[in-house]
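Morning - 3-(4-hydroxy-phenyl)pyruvic acid inputs below, output right after.
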Amino acid sequence: MASELRTVLVVGTGLIGTSVALALRGQGVRVLLADRDQGAMRLARELGAGEEWRAAPSAGADGANAQPAGSAGSAGSAGDAGPDAAPAGGERADLAVIAVPPAHVATELLALQRAGAAAHYTDVASVKALPIDEARRLGCDLGAYVASHPLAGREKSGPGAARADLFLGRPWALCPTPESSPEARAAVLRLVELCGANPVEVDAGDHDRAVAVVSHAPHVTASAVAARLADASEVALGLAGQGVRDVTRIAGGDPGLWLGILSGNAAPVAEVLEAVSRDLAEAASALRALAGGDGTASTDITQLLKRGVAGHGRIPGKHGGPASSYVVVQVVIGDRPGQLAKLFQVCDEVGVNVEDVRLEHAPGLPLGIAEVSVQPDAAPVLTRALHERGWQVP
Ligand SMILES: NC(=O)C1=CN([C@@H]2O[C@H](COP(=O)(O)OP(=O)(O)OC[C@H]3O[C@@H](n4cnc5c(N)ncnc54)[C@H](O)[C@@H]3O)[C@@H](O)[C@H]2O)C=CC1
Ligand SMILES: O=C(O)C(=O)Cc1ccc(O)cc1
C-alpha cells in the first residue's frame, strides 16, 4: 500500500530525530520540529532539518510538551479526537516521529494523539516492549501507531551530531501490534524507505532480546573495557592503537540515555552479560593457570578466541548482505591537510569504490596509515595506481 508522506512532525530533535528530519528534507518532505528544549529545536532548524511546529494553542507553546486535549486522567482513549480530526489551530502531519528517550515515548504519544498532531505515529526508541506496553496502558490509539527502531546511531547526542545519511543501508525494525492499521504500517514503511534504510518486521519481545545481544550488552561491555582506561597510565594511553578505539567507541554514549535504554531491557541484557561474564571469568582463570606454568590451559583461551572469530564473521556486511570479504589496502599518509582527499581522488581516477576507510594514527608521529577497504578485484588495481603515483603502499 503506497503512502505519501508530505508533512512529517519530528518530536525530539536530538541525534536521531534531526537525522530523520535531514534525511526527509533531502527527499523533499516538509518537516515540522518540536523539542522540549527550545535550543535543540532551534539548532535543528538552523541545520536545515525543518521548521518549528506551531502546535495548537491547547497543545501548549512547545509541541513536545503538548498538553493532552482532554484531562490527563480522562477515561476516553487518545483516539477520541477522531481519526481525521485536525488540531484546533495547529497543523496536522501525515506522520509523527517520536525521537525522545524510551521512558518518555508513550506519554508523548498520548499527548500528541490528544492534540490530533498527526494521522499516524511511530517512535525510534532502542527498546520496543516498554513503549508499546505503556501506550496500551495509557489508552493511546494503537491503530495509528507502529513502534520502530533504526539500528543506526552514534556515540554522540544532540542535533549537532545528526547526519542525513545515518540510516542508509541500515536495518530499521518495525514492531506493529495486532491493533496497528495497514495505513499506519504503510506510513512507517514509507518513512524507512525515505531514510534509505531496510525495514525488518519483528515482534517487540523478539526485538528486545535480539538488541540485547547486538547492541545493549556490547555497550555495557565496551563501558567495562573503557572504564579500565580511566586510571590507566600515560604510557598505556600513549600506546593506544585502533583496536582499543574500536572496542570502546560506543562507550562514549550519553550515560543518561543509556541508563534509560538498559533499564527498559534489563532482563534480556542481564542474561547476555551473565554469559559474557562466564567467558571472561574462564579466560582469566585459564590465563592464571598459564601464568602458573600449566600449558594445557591455552586450549581454553584458543577456544574462546576461535568462537570470537566465528561470531564476528557472522555479522552481515554494510548493506545487510552476507559478511563482507573486502580487502584492506594500507596506504602511508603524511599528517598534512588534504592527504585523504588526494587518496580518494586516486580511487576515483581508477574507478575503485571505497567500501570503508579507517585511519590508524599514533600520537606524535608525522605519518599515519589509511586502511582502505575495497572489493577483492579492485585491490591490485588500486595498489598499482598508488605505486605509480608515488604513494607508499607497504
Ligand atoms: N543514540 C543512538 O545511537 C540511538 C538512539 N535511538 C533512540 O532514539 C531516541 C533519541 O535518542 P538520541 O537522539 O540519541 O538522543 P538525544 O539526547 O540526542 O536527543 C533526544 C532529544 O529528545 C528531547 N526530549 C527528551 N524528552 C523529551 C520529551 N518528553 N519531549 C520532547 N523532547 C524530549 C531532548 O531535549 C533531546 O533533544 C531514544 O529513544 C534512543 O533510544 C535509536 C537508535 C540509535
Ligand atoms: O554507535 C553505533 O555504532 C551504534 O550502533 C549506536 C546505536 C545505539 C543505540 C541504538 O538503539 C542503535 C544504535
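Note: Residues 59-76 have pLDDT under 50 and may be disordered.

O.
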